[in-house]
Amino acid sequence: MPVDNPNISQELPVIRQLDDAAINRIAAGEVVERPASAVKELVENAIDAGSTRIEIAYSDGGKTLIRITDDGCGISEDQLPLALSRHATSKIDGSDLLDIHTFGFRGEALPSLGAVGRLTITSRVGRAPAACISVEGSVMGPVKPAALSGGTIVELRDLFYATPARLKFMRTDRAEAQAITDVVKRLAMAEPFIGFTLRDVTGGGEGRATFRAEAETGDLFDALHGRLAKIIGKEFAENALRIDAERDGLRLIGYAALPTYSRGSSVAQYLFVNGRPVKDKLLVGALRGAYFDYLSRDRHPAAALFIDCDPHLVDVNVHPAKSEVRFRDPGVARGLIVSSLRHALAEAGHRASTTVAGATLGAFRPEPVAADGPARVYQMDRPSLGARTASYRAQAPLPAADTQGFADLTESYSARVEPVVEQMQPETEALPLGAARAQVHENYIVAQTETGMVIVDQHAAHERLVYEKLKRQMAENGVAAQALLIPEIVELSEGDCARVLSVAEELAKLGLTIEAFGGDAVAVRETPALLGEVNARAMVLDILDELDDQGESMLVQAKLEAILSRVACHGSIRSGRRMRAEEMNALLREMEATPHSGQCNHGRPTYVELKLADIERLFGRT
Q1: φ and ψ at residue 324, rounded to 5 degrees
Q2: SS3 of 417, please?
Q3: What letter does residue 79 receive in the DSSP assignment?
Q4: How far apart are CA 229 and CA 257, in angstroms?
Q5: How far apart are CA 154 and CA 229, in angstroms?
Q6: Which runs of consecutive H residues, i.e. helices, occur in 273-324?
Q7: pLDDT 10s digits, 191-244
Q8: What is the pLDDT of residues 25-73, one digit of tens each?
Q9: In sequence order, which residues have a C-beta less than 8 Å from that of residue 581 and are 6 or more positions away?
Q10: I want to staple 256 with a disulfide (CB 3.0 to 4.6 A). Which of 162, 193, 303, 379 is the partner?
Q11: What is the spatial distance between Cα 175 and Cα 408, in angstroms, rounded to a whole number?
């Protein structure tokens, strides 16, 4: 601190009571960071009002106009001035701040928005006359009569006009519009029975609809599945597993994608608590932990998960924007997510994402067509039985000794065709992975199913099978530990020491024995024998880093399973090995019976399934 310019003057400071306008602007700084924050607060109010249709319109990325129209219960004429007062709300009575069943409850959003922008509320309750009220820079106008058929219209113009410094931190109109779209989509996921329409009215008029989701029908899961298909995409819906589990008063529902349908970042992870979109480190860490053994570190799972519980079991009043929550028992929430997701993934068995087949079909290059010429038209009439018989006879190998047939090409081309056993054909083709028909390049098994064909990477598939078997053996027999001749003492801070000892029991099951050593130190007495020589101090510090970042540590388990993965890689069928038909079929049957066999240890698919309809489309047979 510079001595010649102290922060506190030499005169005795005087404590002043700020006026309401300054208080509201400070509150707005906490609640309203950008236009998307204002949209979130206003749409949540519309949902709390029991709306079935909500329309959101914005202009210039929400900087000049945000208008929310709903068909909810409305606000009576005499209640409009009170709605713009700070800490005035109809959603709680103040007796129990944990018994919260609505999105909003603080009564800060409307007065905060009125402090930094020009806010107008028009509302009508039932058959009573409609009324409106306006506020600019915390200066409230009188209540006036208005024309409205029902519901409420909230219009916010010139956001942050009263605090020009905030405008300098706004991003481009496109970026702000994208943030608004993201907020609306998240709220639409949580309320599948409400219709949402988002419009960009920049330039005036009705503008253009940038997002529209009609109200879904049916039961909760059908409605949620339809809404997620609309927002995240049909591919996610096709490759998502239904989640429905309950534990100790917490219920988890939603959909989680197969490991082979993964993303390059966490953009497709949507988490909700009591219908409220949250970005909580505990829940994100639990989701990552559930997919820990199925994805490489640079891939991220896709999921939309909803936790519902008694409001007293979770505190939503720990963040100004209510984007974080605090569970009374965080371990229950985390365990519920991890166990239910892993159970669903295990039940999926060998299933792999349909996007794998889509990418495979996309890799086939279509026949080149001249830029100015018409596309070629194929005549695909089915030939008659006589024509097919004559064709087969004409293409049959000649009996001459000097004629080269398929058998003579085996030296040049690495492919073998297995004879079809007629008695087994119907039964094996009816199985999910079908019957083996050929082996290509001594690495890929081609199998025929009832509806198409399957191509299996024999090395990746067998590697996963061996890996799952090794994990099962380790779980049954435990992890062998090697005692250190001289225990390694690791000096830590008091907080770190308590944190690492809190997970000592879980670490001991993995072969890492840690005990308190008095003061602020721990003693590492045993390490997993499978890891060989271990730098115990570095491992303990890495475990602490994971505990700080994710609330749990998977480090030791990750190291153990990495070694099992390497053992499985070396112990599996190698690329280049020729397999007999019975061996290939045995591999297919084992894949069908083994969980997670649809992806290898690195998250890549072990097989590709091509439907007959897709194959025929490649050849113009449509």
Answers
A1: -125, 150
A2: strand
A3: G
A4: 12
A5: 30
A6: 281-290
A7: 999 999 999 999 888 889 999 999 998 899 999 999 999 999 988 998 899 999
A8: 666 666 678 899 899 989 998 998 899 999 999 999 999 999 999 999 8
A9: 418, 419, 436
A10: 303
A11: 64
Task: Give residue 498's identity as a one-letter amino acid code.
Answer: A
- C-alpha span between 51 and 67 (Å, rounded): 15
Q: Hey, what are 66's tokens?
A: 């945000």
pLDDT at 33: 82
3-state per-residue secondary structure call for 118-163: EEEEEEECCCCCCEEEEEECCEECCCEECCCCCEEEEEEECCCCCC
pLDDT band at 134 (very low <50, low <70, confident <90, very high): very high
The answer to whether 442 and 416 have CB atoms below 8 angstroms apart is no
pLDDT at residue 96 tops 70: no
Please answer whether residues 292 and 554 qualify as being in contact, where contact means their C-beta atoms are separated by less than 8 angstroms: yes
Closest alpha carbon to 457 in 442, 476, 478, 471: 442
3-class secondary structure per residue, 511-533? CCEEEECCCCEEEEEEEEHHHCC
Q: Are strands 195-200 and 53-59 parallel, antiparallel or unpaired?
A: parallel
CA distances from 557 to 165, 327, 338, 545 (A): 50, 26, 15, 15
Q: Which structure tokens are listed for 75?
A: 């606000």
In 3D space, the residue among 325, 261, 607 whose CA is nearest the CA of residue 453 turns out to be: 607
Token pair listed for 465? 């099978």
Backbone angles phi, psi at 47, to 5 degrees: -65, -45
Q: Give the length of the chain.
A: 622
Tell me what pLDDT residue 403 has.
44
CB 443 within 8 A of CB 560: no
Place of tokens 């709220």: 187
What single letter denotes the amino acid at residue 130?
A: A
Whole-number Å distance between alpha carbons of 57 and 200: 6
CA angle 448, 416, 604 (to 5 degrees): 60
- Report how far residue 614's alpha carbon sits from residue 600's, in angstroms, rounded to the nearest whole number: 25
131-136/118-124 β-pairing: antiparallel
Torsion of CA 342, 347, 348, 349, to 10 degrees: 100
Of 243, 249, 325, the closest CA to residue 284 belongs to: 325
Q: What is the rounded CA–CA span in Å between residue 461 and residue 478? A: 25
